[in-house]
Amino acid sequence: MKAKTLKIFMILITAGVISACGSTSAKKDDKYYAMTGQDLLEEGNKNLEGASYEVAVQHYEAIEARFPNTSLAEQAKLNKIYAHYHNRDHDKALAEIDTFIRLYPHHESIDYLYYMQGLINFDRARSILDKLLPPDRAKIDQNQMKESLQSFMTVIERYPDGDYAEDSAERVIYLRNLLAEAEIHKAKFYLDRHAYVGAANRAQYVLDNYDATTSVSDALYIQAKAYQALGLDELSQKSLAVLLHNFPYDKRLVEFGYTITPTGAVLTESVVEE
């Protein structure tokens, strides 16, 4: 009985020694273990400012591991997002943003996170756009632009007095114009191929979702032409009347029997007589 007890005791002692050695070894392997949380944050920020983004991330992650559920850890998470963004690790940055919003939905910097979310998708879309020339820019996939738009809309709707509202509003205008152009491109595609119902529907989508954009006149014109081709004269005239009222100098009104004068479009005399 005593021999058995002694054996168990020796096993426990051995396990304790291994555990202690492992703990000491782990500390030696951790090159940041001697640094305080504030030291880690300051060192991470220095690397961030010096564009050593991966090194900065290592410091921030050390803070999260050693000082979880603290204000230091929260700041480290925010700084890590910024580092990922500048290092063009977009997927990592977006994943960190989602996690932070889920953990701290009422954090004082939450508007910044939605802004960064929009900015990352905005930059992704723009990097593609910069490689294209009009009208090809309207052909790209719209998902990232729509996600970016939603994030910026969240900023201006929930935090209208915040630091990021003004810039978000400007980006919303740009994105809405670009998304409207993409829809117009599709509407023109349908119109050129005599798919008039599809053209009219795409034009209506622009009028319903992207009012006050630079594509409204295009949508009204396409709609008037499509309805005219379908023999829906009343609907065509309604679209034409709105186009005439809001864009009286639009040269495409000539196609509907108007003459463009210094005071706006007027029906030509021959059309009036008929």
TrEMBL record:
<keyword id="KW-0732">Signal</keyword>
<dbReference type="Pfam" id="PF13525">
    <property type="entry name" value="YfiO"/>
</dbReference>
<comment type="function">
    <text>Part of the outer membrane protein assembly complex, which is involved in assembly and insertion of beta-barrel proteins into the outer membrane.</text>
</comment>
<keyword id="KW-0449">Lipoprotein</keyword>
<protein>
    <recommendedName>
        <fullName>Outer membrane protein assembly factor BamD</fullName>
    </recommendedName>
</protein>
<comment type="subunit">
    <text>Part of the Bam complex.</text>
</comment>
<dbReference type="GO" id="GO:0051205">
    <property type="term" value="P:protein insertion into membrane"/>
</dbReference>
<comment type="similarity">
    <text>Belongs to the BamD family.</text>
</comment>
<keyword id="KW-0472">Membrane</keyword>
<dbReference type="InterPro" id="IPR039565">
    <property type="entry name" value="BamD-like"/>
</dbReference>
<feature type="domain" description="Outer membrane lipoprotein BamD-like">
    <location>
        <begin position="35"/>
        <end position="239"/>
    </location>
</feature>
<dbReference type="GO" id="GO:0009279">
    <property type="term" value="C:cell outer membrane"/>
</dbReference>
<keyword id="KW-0998">Cell outer membrane</keyword>
<feature type="signal peptide">
    <location>
        <begin position="1"/>
        <end position="20"/>
    </location>
</feature>
<keyword id="KW-0564">Palmitate</keyword>
<dbReference type="InterPro" id="IPR017689">
    <property type="entry name" value="BamD"/>
</dbReference>
<dbReference type="InterPro" id="IPR011990">
    <property type="entry name" value="TPR-like_helical_dom_sf"/>
</dbReference>
<dbReference type="GO" id="GO:0043165">
    <property type="term" value="P:Gram-negative-bacterium-type cell outer membrane assembly"/>
</dbReference>
